[in-house]
């Protein structure tokens, strides 16, 4: 090969490399365009580990997810408005929303207002038991199956993590709550037993007894209302 031919070959090869490098940079920037911004602040997009999965109910006007500490004050307000609940401090709801978010459910209206919530936890010394601490539905959303729907979602999620029993306490005067848990037990073909857990002796004079409702065993994932996808 002549010297000229060798030089031509080298130039062609370098041009080829430059084109390849351009293409690679193009692909890199195209990929960067599709990547999330990586903003780890509260205002930024949530990563997979912290993501609150939001789902929508069939009627489309409420969405369901886990609470965040930003919801704590609203949960506290709803607990105060709901009636029939032992209202804890605002701080307790904030902490709950931070530490027990995965075992709790909130229903949000179209403007982000909270229509209802369920707070619950897996009992530390009985991990197959999901204890429902409080359920509340805003007065304007009652008698439409919202509490049942939230309970179904919460238990469905817990059953896929090994839970087989649901416990809660209800005061004997709370017909709505009693019916909620009866209806849940019936739908899941599970037994429901009742026994006083705490009486006036522990709760103080004038407090109705807290009757433990224990439901189970629940075989397989709990029934999900109206074909709604589980979390
Ligand atoms: C109890 C409460 C959460 C129920 O919420 P809800 O969304 O209205 O309940 P649902 O529509 O899902 O109804 C669930 C079942 O209870 C029944 N129910 C609801 N309210 C009722 C009432 N006031 N009286 C009798 N039954 C009632 C429903 O008919 C349904 O039974 P079904 O499946 O046989 O039809 C709501 O009334 C509330 O927030 N109350 C104040 C707070 C409270 O008492 N919480 C529970 C103690 S932790």
From TrEMBL:
Gene Ontology molecular functions: diaminobutyrate acetyltransferase activity
Domain N-acetyltransferase: 62-204
Pathway given in the UniProt record: Amine and polyamine biosynthesis; ectoine biosynthesis; L-ectoine from L-aspartate 4-semialdehyde: step 2/3
Domain of life: Bacteria
Enzyme class, first EC level, given as a word: transferase
Region called Disordered, residue ranges: 37-68
PROSITE patterns membership: GNAT
A GO BP entry: ectoine biosynthetic process
Alphabetized CDD domains for the sequence: NAT_SF
Keywords, comma-separated and alphabetical: Acyltransferase, Transferase
Transmembrane segments: none
SUPFAM superfamilies hit by this protein: Acyl-CoA N-acyltransferases (Nat) (SSF55729)
EC number(s) given by UniProt: 2.3.1.178
Family classification: Belongs to the acetyltransferase family. EctA subfamily.
Protein name: L-2,4-diaminobutyric acid acetyltransferase
Gene source species: Glycomyces lechevalierae
């Amino acid at each position: 090969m002549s010297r000229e031919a060798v030089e031509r070959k080298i130039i062609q090869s370098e041009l080829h490399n430059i084109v390849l490098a351009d293409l690679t940079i193009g692909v890199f920037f195209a990929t960067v365009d599709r990547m999330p911004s990586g903003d780890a602040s509260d205002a930024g997009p949530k990563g997979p580990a912290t993501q609150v999965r939001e789902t929508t109910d069939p009627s489309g006007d409420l969405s369901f997810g886990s609470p965040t500490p930003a919801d704590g004050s609203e949960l506290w307000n709803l607990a105060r408005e709901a009636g029939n609940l032992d209202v804890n401090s605002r701080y307790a709801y904030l902490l709950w929303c931070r530490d027990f978010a995965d075992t709790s459910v909130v229903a949000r209206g179209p403007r982000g207002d909270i229509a209802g919530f369920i707070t619950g936890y897996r009992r530390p010394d009985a991990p197959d038991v999901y204890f429902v601490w409080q359920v509340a539905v805003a007065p304007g959303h009652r008698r439409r199956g919202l509490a049942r729907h939230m309970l179904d979602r919460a238990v469905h999620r817990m059953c896929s993590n090994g839970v087989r029993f649901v416990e809660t306490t209800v005061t004997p005067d709370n017909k709505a709550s009693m019916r909620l848990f009866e209806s849940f037990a019936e739908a899941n073909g599970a037994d429901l037993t009742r026994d006083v857990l705490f009486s006036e002796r522990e709760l103080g004079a004038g407090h109705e007894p807290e009757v433990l409702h224990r439901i189970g065993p629940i075989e397989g994932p709990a029934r999900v209302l109206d074909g709604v996808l589980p979390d």
